[in-house]
């Protein structure tokens, strides 16, 4: 049963021990993540499926981590103390793979216990006061947007057959080109992409998201669209609406925090 679904950004700078004085520049995002964590704790999921753009991507298939024990830290960002560790839910992993392969979606297993920052940053906030959830890391691929939506539907099918309470988190930043000080260069289409995506999420218009202009997507320099589309696929058989908790781009990268309210 799906009990929680969200879109989360993953800038390491929102981790207090990493961001330091810069944390104040992301206060809207930090506040929204704390609010999201309250919803997460209330839902009490026993498993979190987290989709990260920075996981062990394979070019011809989706990737699901099958390592029994998962761990990660922020040492590459200067924090040598904070560590996170989780158990995997291999029963749900098997159910997702079975549903995907049955529907002709290529998916493979990877045995890499190290969690990337795309998974760690959302999990840092969501699990601070709730430590009972197992974690299933998923990495997307360069395959078509429609294939990612179909993969999400397979995930939703597996969730629907599970007796457990499951959360799905789409980790991803939006455009990396929103302002002139953006890390990969500025494009006026960066803001256009972010505004259009957020508007379509509010309207629950998955079809238009799947058919967004490829040149707009390319020009935006995003990293989270495929994570979001997998989430939309998982939600496609349910009644829901997105609640936008925050959006800001303090460093030229769009940070969106959104919660799917499930009916």
From TrEMBL:
InterPro entries: Xdiol_dOase_suB
Alphabetized UniProt keyword annotations: Oxidoreductase
Short name of any one Pfam family annotated for the protein: LigB
Domain spans labelled Extradiol ring-cleavage dioxygenase class III enzyme subunit B: 7-257
Keyword Zinc carried by entry: no
GO molecular function: ferrous iron binding; oxidoreductase activity, acting on single donors with incorporation of molecular oxygen, incorporation of two atoms of oxygen
Coiled coil (UniProt feature): none
Oxidoreductase keyword on record: yes
Superkingdom of source: Bacteria
Protein name: AmmeMemoRadiSam system protein B
Gene that produces this protein: amrB
């Amino acid at each position: 049963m799906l009990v929680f679904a969200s879109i989360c950004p993953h800038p390491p700078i929102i981790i207090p021990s990493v961001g330091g004085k810069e944390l104040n520049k992301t206060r809207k995002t930090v506040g929204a993540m704390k609010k999201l964590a309250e919803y997460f704790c209330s839902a009490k999921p026993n498993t979190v499926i987290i989709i990260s753009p920075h996981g062990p991507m394979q070019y011809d298939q989706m990737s699901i981590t099958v390592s029994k024990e998962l761990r990660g830290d922020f040492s590459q960002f200067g924090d040598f103390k904070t560590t996170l560790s989780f158990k995997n839910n291999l029963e749900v992993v098997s159910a997702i793979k079975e549903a995907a392969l049955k529907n002709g979606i290529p998916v493979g297993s990877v045995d890499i216990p190290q969690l990337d920052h795309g998974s760690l940053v959302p999990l840092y906030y969501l699990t601070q006061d709730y430590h009972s959830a197992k974690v299933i890391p998923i990495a997307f691929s360069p395959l078509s947007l429609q294939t990612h939506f179909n993969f999400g539907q397979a995930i939703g099918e597996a969730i629907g057959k599970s007796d457990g309470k499951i959360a799905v988190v789409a980790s991803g930043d939006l455009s990396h080109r929103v302002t002139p000080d953006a890390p990969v260069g500025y494009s006026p289409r960066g803001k256009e992409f972010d505004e259009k995506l957020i508007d379509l999420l509010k309207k629950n218009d998955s079809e238009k998201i799947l058919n967004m202009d490829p040149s707009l997507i390319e020009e935006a320099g995003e990293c989270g669209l495929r994570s979001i589309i997998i989430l939309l696929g998982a939600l496609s058989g349910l009644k829901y609406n997105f609640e936008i908790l925050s959006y800001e781009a303090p460093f030229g990268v769009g940070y969106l925090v959104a919660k799917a309210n499930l009916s």
